[in-house]
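User: Good morning. I'm curious how nicotinamide-adenine-dinucleotide would be positioned relative to this chain. Could you predict the structure with it bound?
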Amino acid sequence: MKILVTGGAGFIGSAVVRLAVSRGHEVVNLDALTYAANLENVAGVAESPRYAFEQADIRDRAALDRVFGKHKPDAVMHLAAESHVDRSIDGPGAFIETNVTGTYNLLEAARAFWTGQGKPEGFRFHHISTDEVFGSLGETGQFTEDTPYDPRSPYSASKAASDHLVRAWHETYGLPVVLTNCSNNYGPFHFPEKLVPVVILNALHGREIPVYGDGGNVRDWLYVEDHADALLLCLEQGAVGRSYNIGGENEARNIDLVRMICAHLDELRPAGAPHDRLIRFVTDRPGHDRRYAIDPTRIRTELGWRPSVTVEEGLRRTVAWYLDNEAWWRPLLDREGVGRRLGTA
Ligand SMILES: NC(=O)c1ccc[n+]([C@@H]2O[C@H](COP(=O)([O-])OP(=O)(O)OC[C@H]3O[C@@H](n4cnc5c(N)ncnc54)[C@H](O)[C@@H]3O)[C@@H](O)[C@H]2O)c1
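Assistant: Good morning! Here's the predicted structure, ligand included:
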């Protein structure tokens, strides 16, 4: 397949690009290169004849039309987004522009292209979204694909809006779409403003490790390379118009996750041990969702997919990767906003 991946210079998009190229697909990586992007994430495939890069902004419809016309993709995997909840609290406008208006532009560009090609049945528009659209759970229960939407942050509201647009373009215009909603990802190439890399890098530098609120917020942790594998499967075998929840089957409280990371660091960098002495509880994020959990039944029974690594194993690999790849993360520490507390409203 020739796949147009949007946001392929970001964390998850680059994992998709690397995996798709390694499996023999052709990939066109479309990315605006915002603060969160890094072309180093795809350096391993940049020389491949099956890889092309287009710097373009999904807010720019004419640029999208040019990319569709030039590359004529068989499928779109749409990951480009503003993705950091804390930034969405400080500046929601960019989230509406990229996640809502940008997705609308991409849907319209895809629809025009698909229509111009004679509406091939095999064409796919795969929209990658988050479990955060479902809101916050109590102590029990899990999100299924039928859980009503209840987003509570500007980020999750903008993603929910984009999901609704994608479904509407399927129902109204027949665009062959697939949707996926996944839980929190972690792994190599994660931008150092998100919890897991913040913990690793602060601990490594002997700096305080901030944990929001009481640390009791629960997430279902999904290793990014497992996610990329699930995404390609949903693209290839998912039913048109259907959505699939993708989880890691690894629920953990933030404080327990942080302690696991510290334990791996104690083993790999004993000089700084015990790293959990650096943990500090800080003012909570406004509107912080308490618990997310994914019911993976649909993807497991219909597509036969399960995650391949436990959170213990995935974190061990991730910590080791950060220790081995200082040349990757060091320059990112100078990017705007990194290392500062954001989103306190
Ligand atoms: N990270 C997670 O845990 C998680 C969980 C569930 C869903 N998601 C979703 O997966 C997708 C990818 O997330 P991520 O963590 O890799 O994000 P990221 O912030 O690491 O990467 C986003 C990429 O999109 C690009 N981008 C942003 N605005 C753009 C625009 N206007 N035009 C073109 N490109 C633009 C950025 O340059 C960047 O390369 C997002 O849609 C996100 O909502 C992420």
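The radius of gyration is 19 Å. The pocket of nicotinamide-adenine-dinucleotide is lined by residues 6-7, 9-13, 31-34, 36-37, 57-59, 79-83, 98, 102, 128-130, 159, 182, 184-185, 191 (CB under 6 Å).
Let me know if you'd like a different ligand tried.
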